[in-house]
Amino acid sequence: MRKLIGIVAVVLLGLGACVQEPSFSSTPAISFKSIQKITKTSNDGFGGTTKIDSVIMSINFQDAEGDLGLTEAQLKSDVKYKDFRNFEVAVMLQKNGVFIPITFTPALGGLMNFNFKPNQKSGPIEGSIDYSTQFVYAFYKGYSPQFTAKNDTLKFKIFIRDNAFNKSNTIETDPIIIFKD
After folding, report:
1. Backbone phi, psi, residue 29, to 5°
2. How far is it, in rounded angstroms, from Cα 86 to Cα 84?
């Protein structure tokens, strides 16, 4: 019986040694996962209704240290994070078959204000991030004078930063049509 327990222990130790942590870069890496649009009707604030396109962008990420996201306490305690943005989204509008950048004020994206690893233990991390934004039909001109009333095609460029200010690669989403009939 002792011999059997010894053999089982050796086998379990051997199996445990086979599992290795993934080897990721210190610079975050992202890849495009998906984009979807959900159209809903809502009160327009003036006694009528309007349609709203919610666009949800999903990316995959990998990071060697897992230092993604910040808590409110970290933001308040460290001046280096003043005006820090760790999730950036640029909007591209298709005009005459070519995608041109559009500037939004305020810019899309912003701050992932939570730790992806609550224990804050350094180590590799991977997963996905979903980001959503809304386009309200009634206010389409407020987004950009280049928008038309119907059927604008957009795509988005996205990158992230880790807490050491390492900037990931930039990905582009697939195109999506907003303000569709």
Report:
1. -120, 135
2. 6
Look at residues 43, 36, 38 and name the one whose alpha carbon lies nearest to residue 54: 38
For the sheet with 49-63, list strands across it.
Answer: 29-43, 49-63, 125-136
- Tokens standing for residue 122: 């350094």
* Spatial CB neighbours of 124, under 8 Å, sequence gap ≥ 6: 21, 22, 23, 24, 62, 63, 64, 65, 66
Helices (H), 19-146: 72-77, 140-143
Residue with tokens 């049509």: 177
**For the segment 147-175, what is each residue's pLDDT rounded down to a tens digit?**
887 889 999 999 999 999 999 999 999 99
Q: What does the pLDDT average to over 138-146? A: 75
- In this prediction the pTM is 0.82
Q: List pLDDT tens digits, range 60-72.
A: 999 999 888 888 8
Which amino acid is residue 109, in one-letter code? Answer: G
